[in-house]
Write a structure and sequence with these properties.
Layout (H helix, E strand, L loop, with lengths): L6 H11 L4 H8 L2 H4 L11 H13 L8 H18 L13 H8 L4 H6 L1
Helix pairs in contact: 1-5, 2-4, 4-5, 4-6
Pfam families: DUF3140 (PF11338)
InterPro entries: DUF3140 (IPR021487)
Protein name: DUF3140 domain-containing protein
Length: 117
């Protein structure tokens, strides 16, 4: 059985995975493209969209102010970004406007920023 990562490890992974600023993510979540992707959470908004809103809250907090619930969400974000990033489309010409990228962006990760480095 795997042990839960330590808070410092989760914080480092989260900071690496979430490569959008709070303001970039907030602006993104208002777009039609953001709202067009993801699994419905049951209230008409996607799970990823709700996650993005939670990520914005976490990004505005100091590390010392993070709660165990925040750390659990940070772990969820890390797991999602790791898993979904591995499913990159074969045809990279369409990545910029792909549902794959839009979904990752709802979780605070723009895969095109990784390509620019």
């Amino acid at each position: 059985m795997a042990t839960a990562p330590k808070p410092d490890d989760i914080h480092a992974a989260f900071k690496k995975d979430v490569n959008m600023t709070a303001s970039e993510l907030e602006k993104w979540l208002k777009t039609d493209e953001s709202k067009s992707v993801g699994q419905d959470s049951g209230d008409g908004t996607s799970i990823g969209h709700h996650s993005g809103e939670r990520i914005i809250d976490i990004l505005h907090k100091k590390k010392a102010d993070l709660t165990p619930d925040d750390e659990a969400h940070m772990h969820k974000v890390h797991s999602y970004v790791s898993r979904h990033s591995a499913q990159e489309p074969q045809h990279t010409a369409d990545v910029e406007t792909s549902r794959w990228r839009y979904s990752l962006m709802n979780w605070g990760h723009d895969p095109l920023k990784d390509k620019k480095k």
